[in-house]
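FAQ
Q: What does a multi-component entry look like?
A: The components come first, one per line:
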Amino acid sequence: MIKSELVQRIAAANPHLFHRDVERIVNVIFDEIVGALSRGERVELRGFGAFTVKHRAAREGRNPRTGASVSVAEKYVPFFKTGKELRDRLNAPSKEA
Amino acid sequence: MSGKTLTRADLADAVVRQVGLPRNESQALVELVLKEISSCLAGGEPVKLSSFGSFGIRKKGERIGRNPKTGEEVPITPRSVLVFRPSNIMKERINTGLLKRKSS
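Then the predicted structure of the entire assembly, as tokens:
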């Protein structure tokens, strides 16, 4: 499923909303998640999962082809941990058969 | 890092503020978005959200684990795990946002 299909499904369940509003709603939700993470906050959605940010310190890396050492700057990377309920659903016996 | 944690309620608030829908309807929409993504993944289909990231499913085979307390070997059953790959846009926004805060 891609974003436009997600919008489609939400719109189908909410016939009173304009399609473009559904699109905005979906964008606002994901934008809010990214906004929170970029302020250093975490986002916890029970049953679904949690988004956190991890810090990676600067380090000396190596170009694997030439062996030349290059400095890699510190960075922050987003991380997602699947929630318990969703993890259990992924492994529900019904669809693995 | 400010220790704040956002929840469903904060996402619903954002919809109230930015789209102008009533709170209960906004809450229902946030819930529906998460539900649609979850059912899609539970059905084994990956979800790709441009400018946000993609959720994929990886199948893990059986392997031998060890109970760290007793040292006893136990088989870990094959399972599916969810992996999230952030988009470059998301990585970029988080990285620039946090590096700027750090230096200020």
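Q: Is there any commentary attached?
A: Sometimes. For this entry: Chain B touches chain A through 56 residues (CB under 8 Å).
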